[in-house]
């Protein structure tokens, strides 16, 4: 055994062996229970970053651990390969998106293999392959048949620079999140998936996903946003038409003093057309449309509006109420119209105070009556209905049902359930995405592409003009076709699918990535699905996870799958963070550009900023390749596991990396220094021990129990590693006195490398082989602890007097309470503090504590 730890040579050796022997390639069936471990697959951006290293290391530890525990483990990897970044890179580097993407996949695959991750590469997939997206096109056609996919005209966020639709979440301060240019509004025809058809089931299942973090489930429930209430019709005054609103507070209908419309509501333009208020209202609406929609609904956002000059009628009291366009109302929730009750809604209250609109109290609490003129905030609590006609004196909770019944009886409205969730708009006006498989015919309308013509493949031989990636709508060779129904000239759909569609079903496809007769090979998919443990970032808590859940239910209902939910357990790992550094002249600096607190380019003192998520823009990043070259992959893995529990943010520091490297070198030396006798010495197999050998063996089996508990139950790899470090300290201080001692030492080393094998697999495989084992450590069972070996000869009992520690006693584990008390009374320090005192009572906690209460 080389006395020097050479991680690069060791890691290369074992990666080649795992690859040659296909160690981690798995099939279905057998006696072992299945375990499907999956991390969220990466976008092939070109290089892995430390966030990837942490995420995939966590998953790899679990996969390797479960394998050693006797599970048949599926641990696949693939690529989320479609999307706008490839088009932007194609423009920047003057290369086709396909070429850029596939070169990145090849490079990043090599990087992942350098980390020693236990992937079954035979199941690798890339979502940009026609063999993959063919099947989501097939499912799209089935959804179209069932009414779960449809086309409609809608108002969208439009980035003219990127030439595509943006989700609300992608608009920041009125600008595109990617290019920074101003976002406008555009009316387009687009394709939608009917996610709202599954709103209730998606919500109900959040109570059954007990293996998910509570905060993620809360975010999903809020996104679905179920509300119980009433829909109410407000006829327009002096003209035809009406405004339909949804409210959760029908008990406050008599308190309506104005109406608020979203600036995107089509009625706004109709109400002001040709009036003296048209210019002012139009300018206001144009300005508000550019504002961040998420911020518009924030509690602390300034409430603004403009009077349209029009009125609606509250049919419950026949009052005319003014209609405003307001910035805090969105078309995406309810009907895009709000009945405003300023006395009992804080947003309405602030708006009414700003624009001097009357406030009418209609819910009166117990005690002093509310005075609208003196109110400083809305009253949102419970009370009795007042100024509400025949409902006066009714408790407001009972009044809700009574008002709804009255609305239904009079034909003014009725009870309703509303969801914040909206149907999923999947249309993207880009090139690099999966084409939507329909044809537009002037005679036949929308015609599905026949199944035998799938996939509708992207034309990857297109030559793009410099500085631009042409969307499909500008590629005649793609869109010019004939109608499959009548044979006339027709046009293919030129929108491509949102990339969330590809990522919504890839876990199921991993089960049968080579299958070409259907979307899934049912027997294989049913063997592996659902995913037992899914791992990824909290930033995907809503959209990706919600869409995956929806898509799984659609696949179930269309006979493709047999599960209700895709992921049984979910771990959302924390971010990798690092201190930012900035030069007054050169801006953000990489760690390598700072020397002794100064900018290496100009010598000026560096300003140290906050510790925040690693990002290329702020250059607080560490290149994993450089880390591997210097320390090896096992060190990178160990640091990312030891620095913080997986669900917490990890703060990068060089000292921690050095410490991880020193620990691995220490284990290596521990084995190398005893290399003459260790390989030919069998491990201790049981029997009586005394002295240091007995203490070491007890520590070994305590460590096995501790690491097993930390990994299996909590994924607390940091405390598991800390326990292994304690065992290394014990081993370093142990000097085998005879053959029995050497056997105990051998048992300890074997246990250590088996416990650390999932975390630092390369060095542990090498040591395992050095010990003379002829099987892979990866194929070796997880160690179990010997209960008898953990029994202590003596335990320490802490003695307290009135809560203060006055002594520590060593007693046998089976010592009776009276014996412990006698020993305590005989202890000189305890006796001194009891002198002259009266014992009131003694409280004994077996095995831990004796508390004497005196006066």
Side-by-side strand order of the widest sheet? 2-1-24-25
First and last CA, distance: 67 Å
- Give the rounded overall mean pLDDT: 93
Number of strand elements:
35
Helix count equals 26
**Main sheet specs:** 4 strands, parallel
Protein structure class: alpha+beta
Overall morphology: globular
Helix percentage:
25-40%
Radius of gyration: 34 Å
How much of the sequence is in beta strands? 15-25%
Low-pLDDT segments? none
Tag the structure with descriptive keywords.
four-stranded parallel sheet; four-stranded antiparallel sheet; globular; alpha+beta; 35 strands; 855 residues
Can you put this structure into words, describing what you see?
- 40% of the residues are buried.
- The strands form eleven sheets. This protein has a four-stranded parallel β-sheet with strand order 2-1-24-25, with helices on one face. A four-stranded antiparallel β-sheet has the order 4-3-7-17.
- Helix 2 crosses helix 19, helix 22 packs antiparallel against helix 23 and helix 23 packs antiparallel against helix 24.
- It has 26 helices and 35 strands.
- The radius of gyration is 34 Å and the shape is globular.
- The chain is of the alpha+beta class and 855 residues long.
